[in-house]
Prior knowledge:
The protein is mainly alpha-helical. Helix content is about 40%, strand content about 10%. It has a single domain, classed as 3-Layer(aba) Sandwich (NADH Oxidase), CATH 3.40.109.10. The strands form three sheets. Strands 1-2 form a two-stranded antiparallel sheet.
Amino acid sequence: MIKLISRLYIVYTALCLHLLAQELATIKLNPPDTQRGLPFMQTLAVKASATEWSEQELSLQDLSDLLWAANGLNRPEENKTTASSAMNSHDVDMISDADRFRAGSPELRYEWGALDAGIISQNISLFCAATGLKTRPRASMDKEKITELLKLNESQHVFLEHPVGYAK
């Protein structure tokens, strides 16, 4: 499994907070199913922000595919992911880490991190639309509390979250 688990990244704190709330355990993800989902133009036609989700937990395959679509390693020989990254910095794990950029002022690094988070956010939204899952990007969260819970340093930033679930 091409370092899949170690290279899957996601910026969204919803998953991180969910994991913090329960006992941490390693989850071995499935290889991505790259043949699933709607064609691109149909995906765009059905893409919409959700306001409610069912309580059903995501299946392991849905979680595996979601994380791969968000920012998974799709060209391992080049160390490239499904999401473009400013200066190929791969600054986004669970949070954006501006220290991963090799150049630029702190303000520019922050902007690049926000851009990279936005690219991954779009990947998540498109994956959900293509596969029938529901999501909505949100920036209205207690960023200070999340920063405290995750023990983030000054170069690590939380930009948004993406709750994901099945239709209610």
